[in-house]
Amino acid sequence: MPQWVMPDTSGVLRQRLQAAFDTIAPDADPVLRPSERADFQSNGALALAKRVGRLPRQVADEVVDAASLDDLCASVEVSGQGFINLTLSEEFIADQLAAMGADERLGVDVVPAPQTMVIDYSSPNVAKEMHVGHLRTTVLGDALARILGFLGHAVLRENHIGDWGTPFGMLIERLIDVGGAADAESFSVRDLNAFYAEARQHFDSDPAFGERCRRRVVLLQGGDAETLRLWRIFVAESLRHIDEVYGMLGVLLTDEDVVGESFYNPWLPVVVDELAARGLLVEDDGAQCVFPDGFTNRQGDPLPLIVRKSDGGYGYPATDLACVRDRTGRRGATTLLYVVGAEQALHLRMVFAVAAMAGYLPETSAAVHVGFGLVLGPDGKKLASRVGGSERLADLLTEAVDRATASIAGRPSDLNAGQRAAVARTLGIGAVKYADLSTERMRDYVFDWDRMLAFEGNTGPYLQYAHARIRSIFRRAEMPPPARGARPSVGEPPERALALQLLEFPAAIAATAESYSPSKLCTYLFDLATTFTTFYEACRVLVDDVAVRTARLALCDLTARTLALGLSLLGMEAPEQM
RNA sequence: GCCCCCGUAGCUCAGCGGAUAGAGCACCGGCCUCCGGAGCCGGUGGCGCAGGUUCGAGUCCUGCCGGGGGCGCCA
How far apart (Å, rounded) are the C-alpha atoms in residues A191 and A114? Predict the structure, then answer.
């Protein structure tokens, strides 16, 4: 079991205040917040005063009298209309920091009630190269997988690749047409991209071809051996490509995490049967549909979720339902996260609604659409193509590394060529990931090379640089970081500001996880880095006085460790030097 | 027509119902014998509009305006 962990700083304060508020009313919220006027402020007296019909300041005074805060606070003052301003004592701050330093987890406790979370993300299509449209789900989902896993949840990554359905009818028929069925192994994925486009073109322009494709899909879904053989060629070649991109991007996903659409094929009839058994299926225009309450179409008529198409094939809703069934059933998931673009909100709401009707989503589990906005080009339009040359994700990542290489080319460095190349990869990939993660996920964001690669502002390179720079202090000091748990100094205002910012780390992680918004962690890390540079500018670290030096080095070490851990939870590397 | 998301400084973004709305970039003005100037300090500048709830609204509710997305056999 986890060893001792440090008490959460604001949590301790809240408990003490809660006890004091309880003496006035049993369920009053202390409303504890970070404050600009003190370290924290409690605003609970204002609301409570209204309830008990007394003056806010009077209530605040009573709370202060009733609270035992002497061991935590240097001063507790009532001000304004009834705010309680709390200034922590230096001893308490230093104690907390020392505890944080002694903790490998930097004060972030494991959640008391771990969930089994399936995170559905990335989900590229087989037989097409990964493109920029896959960037956000992959980066966001991977960060969430890391963060939630760190908090102690059982995280099951699922890469729901598009390896089934109509496109394969097209591809396989096209393959047969061009006479490549026998030596199909010779296809490379680059060919496949063009191949897909050709197949698509025929599909759109030639009705007879389209009809053959639909029949081929039925063969595929029916398990026809030759069809499956051809299909596997596409899948294998695609996975090679996908893994390569994941390698460049540095994400956790492996082939082990692939649970593609094809996996659910055997379960689709089962889903239909079970829906039918519950009396949920309605035939409409030859299609088997479920009409969940509260969904209507343009005409105001009930909107169906089409589980089985009129041609007998299964559409993606059937797969998605089978997916929910599998995740809550076989995999025992209590939380289902879908890191999927915002435009699929309606579809997912309907799937969740029907899944609940079908009993696939019990009350004890939750399905959450972790949606996100678009990545926009410089023209303000959806970034689908032509980003500095290409829409291929692999090319975009290569360009990121090239640009990072150029940006560090002229700078002095002690590193050799190989190390510098590694740094360029770290910076370039980090820049792309951070640009994505640092924007609130529901917002669209503009993809801008210059901005994301800048060493100024809220960027990946800035944070990575901040980390490397702190690490350099220890090389310069010619001494190792102080013993973990060394007591930092917090007497000077910049030291104190840094200390308080460091102690907010667990709260930042909690807020990030709660809202599934890595941007909150990004904001925190950026604030930490700027708070650090202010400290570093004002307080000389490498002074002769060993006590001061050690105490400040402890602050440096904690800052670097927090940055490194935070970045790693975002899926980013933090180089020691650059 | 209906539903969802977004609207905060010139630009990119933070803001968990609390005090005077914060950063970054850009711009202007300072700081370099000093630990990586890829820096620090300061300044200009803003909550789309109108109601409502509340002791208190950028935050919650309603309506409008603007932008994006979605609305039956593609995924």
Answer: 45
Nucleotides on chain B within 7 angstroms of protein Cβ: 1-7, 12-19, 22-26, 34-36, 38-41, 54-56, 68-75
d(CA A472, CA A574): 13
Pairing of strands A287-290, A282-284: antiparallel
Cα–Cα nearest to A189, from A239, A226, A133: A239
Domain extent, residue A179, equals: 165-252
Per-residue pLDDT tens digits for A248-296: 999 999 999 999 999 999 999 999 999 999 999 999 999 999 999 989 9
Residue finishing a domain among A237, A252, A267? A252
Write the CB contacts of A379 (distance below 8 Å, at least 6 apart in sequence). Answer: none
Structure-token pair, residue A324: 């929910």
Distance A435 CA to B64 C1' (A): 34
Q: Which two three-digit tokens encode residue A362?
A: 């019990």
* CB A159 under 7 Å to nucleic chain B: no
Could you give the ipTM of this predicted complex?
Answer: 0.95
Q: Domain total for chain A?
A: 2
Is the C-beta atom of A11 closer than 7 angstroms to strand B?
Answer: no
* Confidence at A483, pLDDT banded by 50, 70, 90: low
- Proximity of residue A541 CB to strand B below 7 A: yes
Do residues A130 and A393 touch, judged by C-beta distance below 8 A?
A: yes
Q: Does any strand B atom come closer than 7 Å to the Cβ of A51?
A: no
Q: Is the dihedral of CA A85, A86, A87, A93 positive or negative?
A: negative
Let me know if residue A482 belongs to a domain. no
- Provide the CATH number for the domain around residue A56: 3.30.1360.70
What pLDDT shows up at residue A384?
60
A515-568 tens-digit pLDDT: 999 999 999 999 999 999 999 999 999 988 888 988 999 999 999 999 999 999
Judging by beta carbons within 10 Å of its beta carbon (0-12, 13-18, 19+), is residue A346 exposed, middle or buried? exposed
pLDDT at A444: 87
In-domain check, residue A139? no
> Which residues make Cβ contacts (< 8 Å) with residue A139, sequence separation at least 6?
A249, A251, A432, A433, A436, A437, A571
Asked if residue A471 belongs to a domain, the reply is: no
In this predicted model, what pLDDT tens digit does every residue of A31-69 receive, in sequence order? 999 888 899 999 999 999 988 989 999 999 999 999 999
Residue at minimal CA–C1' distance from B7? A443
Residue A344, nucleotide of least CA–C1' distance: B70
**Contact A101/A116 with Cβ under 8 angstroms?**
no
Nucleotide in closest CA–C1' contact with A42: B18
Half-sphere exposure of A396 (CA within 13 A, CB side): 27
Q: Which of A189-203, A219-233, A453-467 has the highest mean pLDDT?
A: A453-467
Boundary-marking domain end, from A61, A88, A115 = A88
Cβ of residue A438 lies below 7 Å from strand B: yes
Which nucleotide does the CA of A343 lie closest to, via C1'? B69
Task: Answer yes or no: is A61 within a domain.
Answer: yes
Would the pLDDT of A187 be above 70?
no
- Estimate in Å the CA A456 to C1' B28 gap, whole number: 19
Dihedral of alpha carbons A495, A498, A500, A503, sign: negative
